[in-house]
Design goal:
Elements lengths: L12 H12 L23 E6 L21 E6 L2 E9 L2 H6 L1 H24 L10 E2 L13 H14 L10 E4 L1 H7 L6 E2 L14 E3 L2 E5 L9 E7 L4 E14 L6 E13 L5 E7 L21
Parallel strand pairs: 4-12, 5-8
Antiparallel strand pairs: 1-2, 3-11, 5-9, 6-7, 7-8, 9-12, 10-11
Helix pairs in contact: 1-3
Length: 303
C-alpha cells in the first residue's frame, strides 16, 4: 500500500495550491465579513496566534497643574487553529487534468464549494458570542418577520450596532440572511437593491442595502429549534486565519487512477463582541391545505 507521503511524479502540488488559495479568497459570504489581521504563519493544526487588544483610554478634565496617569493594561487572547478539514478524490489521470485548464478549474471549484460550506456554517455559529444588548428578539419570543415588519426590525438590528459604538467612519456593517428572509426583504419598499445603490462599495455578492447594512445571502443560515439567527456586524468583530496546509497525490493501487487530497486548517475568534448583533426570528410555518372532494352520484329514473 502506498505511503501517505508518497508523491505521484506527474502531480504539481504548487499549481493546485496556488489556484485553490486564489479562488478561496473570492465570493465566500462570511469571508467578506471577517478580518485576517492576525493570520500569521499557520503550518499545522494546533497553531496559536496571540492577539493583543489595546486598553481603553479615558479622558479627564484638567482642574489643576497636577496630572494623574492611568495605567493601561492591554488584554491578550489566543486564536487557536483548531479546525481541520480535508478533501480526497480519484481522478483518471492527474497529468491530463493539469494540462486541461477547464477540468482543473472544475475540480478546484468543487473543492472550494465544499470548503465554503463547512467554513460558512462554522463562522455563522459565532452568533452565540453576541451580547444580550445587541440581540433583537429572544428564544422564547422570536420576531415574526413578514414583508410589513422586516424593515423596522432590521432598523433595530442596525441601531444595536450603532449604540454599541461598533459603527464609525469608514466601517460598513453587514447582515447575513437566508433565502426565506430575502423573499420578505425583496417585497419591502425600503430595501435598496444592488442595482439602485449609488456607490460601488457593496460587498461582492451583496443583493443590496437595508438600514445602512450590506445584505448578503447564505443558504447555510438554517433554522435551529424552530428559529433563525440573522447575524449582523462589522469586520472588526471576528478574526479568521486559515491555511491550505497540503495538497498531494499518489497512485491508486486498485485502479488506473490518481488520488488527490488536500488538508485545510482554520480557526476564528470573536475579538470585538460589541461589533456583532443578531435577530432571533421564528421560522415560517408551512401550511398544507387539504382539499376534500365529495363525489355525488345522481340516479336518473326512467318514467
Amino acid at each position: 500500500m502506498s505511503d501517505f507521503s508518497t508523491s505521484y511524479s506527474a502531480f504539481i502540488p504548487e499549481l493546485w495550491s496556488q489556484k485553490l488559495n486564489k479562488i478561496l479568497e473570492k465570493n465566500c459570504v462570511m469571508m467578506q465579513c471577517v478580518n485576517k489581521n492576525w493570520e500569521g504563519d499557520i503550518k499545522q493544526q494546533g497553531d496559536v496566534v496571540k492577539i493583543i487588544t489595546p486598553a481603553e483610554v479615558s479622558v479627564s478634565t484638567l482642574t489643576s497643574d497636577s496630572i494623574e496617569y492611568s495605567s493601561l493594561t492591554p488584554t491578550s487572547m489566543d486564536l487557536e487553529i483548531d479546525q481541520k478539514k480535508f478533501f480526497a478524490f480519484k481522478i483518471d489521470d492527474v497529468a491530463k487534468a493539469q494540462a486541461n485548464t477547464n477540468i482543473l478549474e472544475a475540480h478546484l471549484e468543487n473543492a472550494k464549494r465544499a470548503i465554503e460550506e463547512v467554513q460558512d456554517s462554522y463562522l455563522l455559529a459565532f452568533h452565540t458570542d453576541v451580547v444580550s444588548a445587541n440581540t433583537v428578539g429572544s428564544e422564547d419570543s422570536p420576531i415574526e418577520l413578514n414583508k410589513s415588519t422586516v424593515y423596522e426590525n432590521f432598523v433595530k438590528l442596525s441601531l444595536a450596532l450603532k449604540n454599541s459604538n461598533a459603527v464609525y467612519s469608514g466601517v460598513k456593517p453587514w447582515v447575513i440572511i437566508n433565502p426565506t428572509i430575502e423573499s420578505y426583504l425583496l417585497q419591502s419598499p425600503e430595501f435598496i437593491s444592488a442595482h439602485n445603490v449609488a456607490d460601488t462599495t457593496l460587498r461582492e455578492g451583496s443583493i443590496g442595502r437595508i438600514a445602512g447594512m450590506d445584505v448578503l445571502v447564505s443558504t447555510n443560515l438554517s433554522a435551529v429549534n424552530g428559529n433563525y439567527y440573522i447575524l449582523a456586524g462589522t469586520n472588526d468583530a471576528i478574526t479568521f486565519a486559515s491555511q491550505l496546509a497540503k495538497i498531494e497525490s499518489l497512485r491508486d493501487k486498485d485502479s488506473f487512477s490518481d488520488l488527490v487530497r488536500g488538508l485545510y486548517l482554520y480557526g476564528a475568534k470573536t475579538v470585538q463582541p460589541k461589533a456583532l448583533a443578531k435577530m432571533i426570528v421564528s421560522a415560517p410555518v408551512t401550511t398544507t391545505t387539504t382539499t376534500t372532494t365529495t363525489e355525488t352520484t345522481e340516479t336518473t329514473s326512467n318514467p
